[in-house]
Amino acid sequence: MSMNAASWVGLFCVAASCGQFLVPSRVYTQPTDFVLGLPVVPVVLLGFSAVLLTTGVILLGEGICKRLGAPSLWTAAVADPARFVRVLLGGAAAGLVMEVVAQWLGRLWIYPFWTVWLYALIVVPGFAFYWMSIVESYLAVKAVLDRLARPSRSVAPARPGGLLLIGVAALTTALLLYLNWYAQGYVLAVQHPTVHAPPFWYALIAFLGVWVTVEALLTRWGRPSLLGAMRRRYWTPLAAMVGASAVVGVLMEVQNAVHRFWAYQNWPGGWVAGVPVAVPTAWPLQYATFLVVPLLLAPELAVLFFTHPASAATTR
What we know:
Strand order of the largest sheet: 1-2
Number of strands: 6
Low-confidence stretches: none
Oligomer: single chain
Structural class: mainly alpha
Shape: globular
Mean pLDDT: 91
Strand content: under 5%
């Protein structure tokens, strides 16, 4: 597969994001320039590196989709101004769901160099931007796999009953567990480590509740979904999630493990090379959340995410 301009620029951005490694480690470990409590130099260096890496992943995804003649997030989003706004809001909403469950409640990571005021300024636009990289990487892998797999001709079995009940029950259980855990008080911990954290499985129940509830709503509304694709024996979306999370996860975790733009905490199991062993298995869960939650605000993306292009063309 030959490279196009978007892919080349994307590769350049990914390579340039490694420039943070050329800066002496003391710049990160012993910062001296502070503004309102913010260590400016480490934040600027790591933040710029993160922007380059995220931009590179987005451009690579777009380039691969364009090279294969597959639909991409950008082409779908810019087709209509109102849709573009909904797509951005959907991405921000998906990012906030993950942040609320895993960071605010689960205490699974912190941002050592950040301050609360910086966090408040960039958390929403930052997650919308990050969400784009996750989706573009997924669509790129999906485009490759769709070229290798024929569209499914199987008819989906009857829609499973009680799906919404399961999702709501899981969300309610997670809410009650967190309310009980934080009954003595809650403090938002963005920057500083927290030793006293809820059990890890609380977050798993919450994520399960979010995913199943959204899946149930999509099923009721007759929209494509991840679970619906699996019911039709269309396994490409699931495989694309795993493949994209493996590639993007390695890229991001390797870069982050050196200077810790974000730092993990309170994960079960051991650690390897500065990363909890459970993190790689959680990356596909992140993809599932980022793919289904935005569909509540941007339903047009459902066909793009969970339908073979050839099948989608025949239904329009």
